[in-house]
Automatic annotation (TrEMBL):
InterPro entries: LipidA_mod_glycosyltrf_83, RgtA/B/C-like. It is a multi-pass membrane protein. GO terms for molecular function: pentosyltransferase activity. PANTHER family: MANNOSYLTRANSFERASE YKCB-RELATED, MEMBRANE PROTEIN. This is Glycosyltransferase. Residues 55-217 form the Glycosyltransferase RgtA/B/C/D-like domain. Pfam families: PMT_2. Keywords: Cell membrane, Glycosyltransferase, Membrane, Transferase, Transmembrane, Transmembrane helix.
Length: 497
């Protein structure tokens, strides 16, 4: 296979399609309990809204559309994520093909990007909006460099506008990338002319049309859109040992290093014999991409200082560290090196990392319980659903919960029943149907044996008549767990007239 990739570089796209397909299959073969982001997507796929809270809505809209067509299931959730991951890798390779003089340049770039932790690890473990934003990054890079490499063409400018619009609807910090790209080409006289072409107005217009509905929502819900992210960026500020600006910049530096260290180590190991030549090499495109990376992190540093942020996570920088493998490929290309001899080693490392992670995540479900290691995948929501269905009486017309993970998982188990997250799903609360309602929660934790306050308040607001004086508490065996290991659930029935 490694020699085949050297002979037929386009075989790369068959490999990444197989990788994404394998990820989908292994996810479906696991128990149907969801992780954190997956639970959120399952819950929110009930609604088509202009905004959903702290994250932009592009991924939610995609998920809503897929669920509307095919129904809610683990398959419909994982197909959206891996479909976007495939498109990210596809357009990343196409971008490398636009810029590289070597037919193997795209393979080097794509295999390099598969060594980034947000790509081979976090995207498979539990990311959603970031995966959509990575797709928008590669689509933007493809449109942007196609526009710069060819005579001015309206189609390329429109593609850039679409990519920026989708990126802004995927992650708010995406807008840093096109700003950095514009700064990066300013010093190049032969590229500056593209900024002053009338087609830029068409690009801006199509971007504005795409983001306008959500922008309207943001203006009217600014606190919901930014509050959570700002709070996370200021996490630990009260106990910071250094001034906030210094603490934030140190956190940014550490997060940046975490994001790129492995990729730098892999390229250093594979191309160690030519490191000096690669470091000295330069071209128009290494300068542009290098400035883009530098401008991105300078803008982030300014934001960190201006916001008094003290805590930066490596995954927040994924959109910008994704530029690194492209830059390294261009440096290799500028050095005039033929990567054919090194490609098998790079393929082996990227393959072990990417395929190894999805196999490990699948195997962990079955190996973990042997040592008492239980995760979200083991929580037996399917067993709890069987207990509920065995109860006498009609099925619930709605299910009330106070936890988003419980909400998303019960959406999988009861696909035709509205799931209402107390305090969050206001639209659903206002349209609550009359009939028999199930309130469910996990009783694990202090005071959780009784009806949780948020659920109780909602039941009183309806108003609802609760059947029985005490919640029912049941113990259900873990998915793939050891004999005797159980997880507890609590529930009550209520009637709304």
């Amino acid at each position: 296979m490694r020699s085949l990739l050297v002979r037929r570089p386009d075989f790369l796209y068959v490999l990444i399609a197989g990788y994404c397909l394998l990820s989908i299959i292994l996810k479906i073969l696991r128990p149907d309990s969801l992780e954190i982001d997956e639970s959120e997507q399952a819950l929110l796929s009930q609604y088509l809204l202009l905004g959903y809270g702290a994250q932009p809505p592009f991924y939610n809209w995609l998920q809503y559309g897929v669920v509307a067509l095919f129904g809610i299931s683990v398959a419909s959730l994982t197909i959206v994520k891996n479909g976007l991951l495939f498109l990210f890798l596809l357009f990343y390779g196409l971008t490398a093909g636009v810029l590289s003089s070597s037919r193997l340049g795209p393979a080097v770039a794509v295999l390099g990007v598969l060594t980034l932790p947000p790509v081979f690890l976090l995207s498979q473990r539990d990311l959603s909006h970031t995966v959509a934003a990575l797709f928008a990054v590669s689509l933007f890079l493809y449109g942007f460099f196609r526009a710069l490499k060819n005579p001015p063409n309206l189609g390329n400018y429109l593609l850039v506008g679409v990519a920026v619009g989708l990126g802004a609807l995927s992650k708010y910090n995406f807008v840093i990338l096109p700003a950095a790209a514009l700064l990066a080409i300013l010093p190049e006289a032969k590229l500056r002319k593209y900024l002053f072409d009338w087609r830029v107005l068409a690009s801006v217009a199509v971007c504005a049309v795409i983001v306008a509905p959500h922008a309207y929502w943001v203006v009217n819900n600014l606190g919901h859109a930014t509050g959570v992210t700002v709070a996370e960026m200021k996490e630990g500020a009260d106990s910071a040992l250094l001034p906030h600006a210094i603490q934030g910049l140190v956190s940014l530096a550490v997060a940046s290093l975490k994001g790129v260290a492995l990729t730098l180590a892999v390229f250093g190991l594979v191309f160690y014999a030519d490191l000096g030549k690669i470091l000295r090499a330069e071209s128009l495109w290494t300068r542009v991409v290098g400035r883009m990376i530098l401008a991105c992190f300078l803008i982030i540093a300014i934001i960190v200082v201006a916001m008094d942020a003290t805590h930066i996570r490596a995954k927040w920088l994924a959109l910008f560290t994704a530029l690194l493998p492209l830059y390294l490929m261009l440096k290799i290309d500028a050095a005039g090196l033929d990567p054919a001899r090194r490609l098998p080693a790079l393929l082996s490392i990227a393959g072990v990392l990417s395929v190894g992670v999805i196999v490990m995540l699948w195997a962990r479900v079955f190996v973990g319980p042997m040592i008492g290691d239980y995760s979200f995948a083991h929580t037996p929501f399917n067993g709890f659903a069987q207990v509920v269905r065995a109860e006498p009486g009609p099925p619930p017309v709605a299910i009330l919960v106070d936890d988003s993970i419980v909400a998303g998982n019960l959406r999988i188990q009861f696909p035709d029943t509205p799931i209402i997250l107390a305090g969050i799903s206001q639209e659903a609360e206002r349209r609550l149907p009359a009939g028999r309602i199930l309130a469910a929660w996990s009783p694990e934790g202090r005071g959780r044996e009784e009806i949780p306050p948020r659920i109780s308040a909602l039941l009183q607001l309806m108003p609802a008549t609760i059947a029985g004086s005490k919640p029912t508490i049941v113990s259900v065996p873990y998915n793939a767990g050891r004999p005797g290991d159980v997880y507890t659930f609590a529930y009550v029935w209520a009637d709304v007239r």
